[in-house]
Amino acid sequence: MGSISMKGVVSRFKTLMVIGLVCGIAVAVIQYERPILALMLGSIIGIAPFMVRIVYMNRIASSIDRGIPHLLLHLLESTKNGLNIIVALQSIPDIKSDYLRDAVNRLLMNIVSGSGIDAAFDRFESDLVTPLAKSISHVIRILIINGGNIPLILERTYNHVYTMYVLEEERKAKLESYKHIVYISYIIYIAIAVMLSTNLFNSVSDMANTYTDVNISDSLFRLNVTNIDEIRDIMLHMGIIEAIIGGLGIGKICYGSMLDGLRHSVVMLVICLLGFYIGGVI
Questions:
Q1: For residue 279, how far is the Cα from the chain centroid?
Q2: Residue whose C-alpha is closest to residue 103's, from 117, 89, 85, 118
Q3: Any long-range contacts for 200-203 (C-beta under 8 Å, 24+ apart)?
Q4: How far apart are CA 20 and CA 42, in angstroms?
């Protein structure tokens, strides 16, 4: 991303979201004769930029949180060697986050240009998108302004942050299996629904047409084509609902936020669309 600030990133994605919304409405209008297909295609295209924005922001947030422990460790080692924090920030090694490195460089430029510590750190915190990074920024600001036993404070802060980071990574790894379970169960449902729609229901419909002249009451063979189409639509609607709920559930369970599961809902909707389209249901 280079040296683009967070405001620039948000501005670009706002433009993409407007374009995606317009394209989604256009697709829905073009496919108006097939309302279900139009709704699915329009929704997928319309929310795709928003989904990409969430994925990109999550990637930035993950990169920043991954780099915070390395930044604290560098500051701790530098202050133990007699350097002050600002000098230590000027010689940051590999902190596993290009975005955090760029944010630190902008912080130093603002300090050198005479913006003042508070103003520079206000801009620095606006570039950071995670609560952890903002909290660490506040700690560093206080240490620069007020001083104190800086190595001791940084050591305890680093130990706490590193422990929490390891625990969070372990939690994500354990919950990753739930995502796979949801995907596998959904794919199995789509496969069964498509097979029923293309094979069993057609056979039942053919048998019903064969026995139209026979007086059979309360029998499965009384199903007609209209009933079969309604059942197919019901199964398609169930697939759509399951895709939305399943994706949001993945976001809540694995990432702590339903919005983070929006991309999984879109992926499941695409699976549903392809499955039923190949099966000739839509």
A1: 30
A2: 89
A3: 201/228, 201/231, 201/232, 202/228
A4: 9
- Report the distance separating Cα 104 and Cα 91, nearest Å: 10
Query: DSSP readout, 27-43?
Result: HHHHTTTSHHHHHHHHH
pTM over the 0.85 mark: no
Q: To the nearest 10°, the Cα dihedral for 222, 226, 229, 234?
A: -80
At 218, is the secondary structure helix, strand, or coil? Answer: coil
Q: pLDDT tens for residues 202-244?
A: 666 666 556 555 554 445 445 555 567 777 788 888 888 899 8
R_g over Cα of the chain: 28
Tokens encoding 197: 């729609």
pLDDT of residue 273: 85
In this prediction, residues 237-261 reach a mean pLDDT of 86
> pLDDT tens-digit profile of 144-184?
888 888 899 999 999 999 999 898 888 888 888 888 899 99
Please tell me the distance from the alpha carbon of residue 222 to that of residue 204, in angstroms, as a whole number. Answer: 9
Give the separation between CA 258 and CA 245, rounded to whole angstroms.
10
Structure tokens at 233: 């639509």
